[in-house]
Amino acid sequence: MSAPAPARRWPLTCPRPSAIRSNARLPDLEPAAAKELGQNALLNSSQLLKPSAKPPQVLRNEIESVLISAPRLARRINALARRIETDFAGRDLVVVALLNGTVMFLADLLRGLSLPLRLDFIGVSSYGAGIRPGDLIFTKELRLDVRGRDVLLVDDILDTGRTISRVMAKLRPLEPRDIKICVLLDKPSRREERINADYVGFAIPNHFVVGYGLDYAERYRNLPFVGVLHPQLYKA
Ligand code: IMP
Ligand code: MG
Asked: What's the whole-model pTM score?
């Protein structure tokens, strides 16, 4: 009987939280995302983030390139947290995160926020096992009362905009004072709904990306970086 294949590993290069927090004033914001942050402006294609580094050798058949490295994610999320802290100072903040894709982004964003807040989740599933948006299924409903409070709605990626539109339609009747949208990634070229995020980590081109919470058929969520999925995996 042959020996079991060795477990595949990738380097865990996420900086420690202390290292993240020490970057309080960010010298190297992504220019495109910095421009967009808080402005709601769509970016033209020349401003979008481009894939750069190669992924770890063990993943090269599946991940075409690293789009956003772990240190770059950490720096950007720290900058978003600073901005959110300023904007929500003195407000009655409820962070509402969409499951499951926000898991890593949310954890890092929350650790960077040093203002009082409440946290709740809405479970929503927009894809089956593929890459095309299907019908939305709500898998968990909001439990906290958001009436009169300021909601920060957090999602992993704003793509066609259908998911966030549906969630907004659910939240508005609950009469929050305000709802702001925060996404790690934005694919403006794919938009079908008239919706933009108030806080955007990175505007990206039209690649199917995985890692740092984002999945393809529920895999790759645990990668510490955002990578471009090899199209051969879903075009076959
Ligand atoms: P939308 O409803 O088309 O805006 O899609 C939002 C949801 O689709 C996200 O919350 C993700 O779960 C998923 N999604 C969209 N694009 C990608 C991608 O490139 N990689 C992984 N998931 C994606
Ligand atoms: Mg998903």
From this structure: 0.81
